[in-house]
UniProtKB/TrEMBL annotation:
<protein>
    <recommendedName>
        <fullName>DUF6701 domain-containing protein</fullName>
    </recommendedName>
</protein>
<dbReference type="Pfam" id="PF20419">
    <property type="entry name" value="DUF6701"/>
</dbReference>
<dbReference type="InterPro" id="IPR046524">
    <property type="entry name" value="DUF6701"/>
</dbReference>
<feature type="domain" description="DUF6701">
    <location>
        <begin position="41"/>
        <end position="372"/>
    </location>
</feature>
Length: 375
């Protein structure tokens, strides 16, 4: 204990977290003493059992090695509380846990608590994409959370000048409240966390990011933080986060082929999942699970005869390709009828696409037989 200007400062160490009482009195006047209840806190946390589950919105895609920008994926990890002597503080559970906002039911509070870094009661979630190849150069994509442009900028080893991309609607790195809200369970000084997160689509295509790094910097309300940081998300030369893992994210679309055929038959329509590879859209041969169900598509009438038809989509994509169909019109139209088939952006917002289907015409093709009659 030390005194300075009539103020005493002292440091107490306890082997575990919890509340304890301290009574102080002057030997000359013990009756004038005072007492207080104090709370011991951990010295630091460690991170373990990290995992990334891609395409967490689609149970059929469990085990996918990639995801689409704008699609949630789940991160999970454990935090363990320790004292200064590196002994687990098993009492850090229940009311002694000083994390609250990261598991709030309020979407705005929840997202802010997961994204904020260095603030008490926060997770410090962020992403960075090194290894982004541009021509013969290798770049790192940095995602900004600053309004109004929320820029993604590129730092390239060879000095290539890559134009930034923006997302005017808001930050790209967010916490998703679907398919379920973030969770936290503490027992014996160890907390198990999970959250669905996403990298929103920019206003124009970017990527693909094949080595996207996800990191966190948890800090409880007392300021207790991780002991080891191994990720530099802001690329300033100093590690400020701990790496949860690395994954692949792609800017995707669903190419819906234009189709035409008889008004007396069902009309098959080919579809193809594609992603931007930095130069062009290519087939995403890794997509073998996106469901092709009627609810994922919208039919809109365009011109000509009104067409009474419905979307009959079944199955899933296979190696990035698949097929949907329009049913045979319930009433045969007298002339040509055109409908637009679009992806429902409330169901698959990360795979936009549209195509045109025309009933009542036939495709042109090579002439098999021609006969001329002259009279």
């Amino acid at each position: 204990m030390t005194f300075a200007n009539g103020v005493a400062k002292f440091c107490l160490m306890a082997p575990d977290v919890g509340n304890f009482s301290v009574s102080l009195s002057d030997e000359a006047s013990p009756a004038d003493g005072t007492s207080s209840t104090l709370r011991a806190r951990p010295h630091h946390f460690t991170l373990s059992d990290t995992s990334i589950t891609q395409r967490s919105d689609l149970p059929a895609c469990a085990g996918s090695t990639f995801g689409y920008m704008g699609e949630p994926f789940r991160i999970a990890f454990k935090l363990k509380a320790w004292n200064q002597d590196n002994v687990p503080t098993k009492n850090y559970a229940g009311s002694f846990v000083q994390f609250a906002k990261p598991i709030s039911g309020d979407a705005a509070v929840n997202t802010a608590a997961w994204i904020n870094s260095a603030d008490p009661d926060s997770m410090g979630l962020w992403m960075v994409a090194p290894g982004y190849v541009v021509g013969s150069d290798t770049c790192t994509a940095k995602f900004s959370g600053n309004a109004p442009s929320h820029e993604t900028t590129f730092v390239c080893d060879g000095g290539s000048n890559v134009a930034p991309v923006n997302r005017t609607a808001g930050p790209r790195v967010v916490v998703s409240m679907t398919p379920e809200v973030p969770s936290m369970v503490w027992s014996n000084g160890e907390g198990t966390f999970s959250a669905n997160v996403m990298l929103h689509r920019a206003d124009k295509a970017d990527g693909a990011y094949e080595t996207l790094e996800i990191g966190i910097a948890p800090r409880d309300a007392d300021g207790v933080a991780l002991d080891v940081l191994d990720m530099d998300a802001d690329k300033n030369g100093a590690n400020e986060r701990a790496r949860v893992g690395t994954t692949k994210l792609r800017y995707g679309r669903l190419k819906i082929a234009n189709a035409h055929g008889s008004e007396r038959l069902p009309l098959p329509i080919n579809v193809q999942a594609q992603y931007w590879n930095g130069k062009a859209y290519i087939t995403n041969v890794n997509d073998g699970c996106t469901p092709l169900v009627p609810g994922n598509f919208i039919k809109e009438d365009r011109t000509g005869e009104s067409i009474e038809t419905s979307i009959a989509a079944t199955g899933t994509l296979s190696a990035g390709t698949g097929r949907i169909a329009l049913s045979k019109p319930t009433q045969t139209p007298a002339g040509k009828g055109v409908v637009t088939i679009k992806v429902d952006d409330t169901k698959l917002p990360y795979l936009p696409g549209a195509g045109t289907a025309t009933f009542g015409i036939y495709k042109s093709g090579p002439v098999i037989y021609r006969r001329e009659l002259h009279y």
